[in-house]
């Protein structure tokens, strides 16, 4: 069974408390925090996500899955470590070179936090193979990062399959998270390809019953 990380990107102001409690009751496995800076991606959710993550930390024991879509990764790590996340994921494309990728991996680990590395749709998955033994999760973006409610890019399913094959062949213990356009229609292919954590936001939050859709996505 896969785990579900619910993106809270589109949670409405004024409805935070009831939505977060309902998601916890519906047994989401993580709260997915989409942190955008208006530079690495067009949208800016930085302040809102820091506020939401701090609020969740006060009312829930569920793990926070922080996804940094930012240019200044180091500063964002400093800001979000305050909410004691379970995992911080940053983008390979935000780093100037491979030395910086390793420096950030080590910084997150040194702060007793799990590490995720994310790749955009146009980045070849082979580019990050060398980092897989040092991280806990690889996040494959199945849409272009920066917007909610997009349609899953079907060729990303092959990318997940290729990553899964490499992981198995090299006996690496790591989670594969898929993020973007995940709903009841697309989840099956992504799970079959090898993803074991699915990020879903819009599909869950527009449902009348969060538990029903979360259960169906998990199966």
The H-and-E topology, N to C, reads as EHEHEHEHEEHEHEHH
Task: Kindly report the average pLDDT value.
Answer: 96
| Rg value | 16 Å
Beta strand count: 8
Q: What proportion of the residues is helical, as a percent range?
A: 25-40%
Helices, by number, come to: 8
Q: Enter the CATH topology name.
A: TIM Barrel
What does the main sheet amount to? 8 strands, parallel, barrel
CATH class: Alpha Beta
Which word captures the global form?
A: globular
Overview of this protein structure:
It is globular and about 40 Å long. Helix 1 (16-25) links the parallel strand 1 (3-7) and strand 2 (30-36). It has helices at residues 16-25, 46-59, 73-80, 98-110, 155-169, 187-193, 202-205, 210-218, and strands at residues 3-7, 30-36, 64-69, 87-91, 114-119, 137-141, 175-179, 197-200. The chain is 37% helix and 20% strand. The protein is an alpha/beta fold and 219 residues long. Helix 5 (155-169) runs parallel beside helix 6 (187-193). The N and C termini lie close together (6 Å). It has a single domain (3-218), classed as Aldolase class I (TIM Barrel), CATH 3.20.20. The chain contains 8 helices and 8 strands; from the N terminus they run E-H-E-H-E-H-E-H-E-E-H-E-H-E-H-H.
Concise description?
The protein is an alpha/beta fold and 219 residues long. The chain contains 8 helices and 8 strands; from the N terminus they run E-H-E-H-E-H-E-H-E-E-H-E-H-E-H-H.
């Amino acid at each position: 069974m896969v785990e579900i990380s619910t993106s809270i990107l589109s949670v409405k102001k004024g409805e935070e408390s009831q939505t977060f409690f309902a998601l916890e009751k519906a047994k989401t496995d993580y709260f997915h925090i989409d942190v955008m800076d208006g530079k690495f991606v067009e949208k800016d959710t930085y302040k809102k996500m820091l506020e939401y993550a701090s609020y969740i930390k006060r009312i829930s024991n569920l793990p926070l899955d922080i996804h940094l879509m930012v240019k200044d990764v180091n500063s964002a790590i400093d800001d979000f470590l305050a909410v004691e996340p379970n995992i911080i994921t940053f983008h390979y494309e935000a780093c100037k070179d491979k030395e910086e990728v390793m420096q950030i991996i080590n910084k997150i680990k040194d702060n007793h936090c799990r590490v995720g590395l994310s790749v955009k749709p146009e980045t070849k998955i082979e580019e990050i193979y060398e980092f897989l033994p040092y991280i806990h999760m690889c996040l494959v973006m199945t849409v272009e990062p920066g917007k909610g409610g997009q349609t899953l890019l079907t060729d990303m399913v092959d990318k997940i399959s290729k990553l899964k094959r490499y992981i198995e062949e090299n006996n690496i213990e790591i989670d594969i998270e898929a993020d973007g356009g995940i709903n009841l229609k697309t989840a099956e292919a992504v799970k079959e390809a090898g993803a074991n954590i699915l990020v879903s936001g819009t599909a869950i939050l527009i449902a009348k019953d969060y538990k029903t859709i979360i259960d169906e996505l998990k199966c």
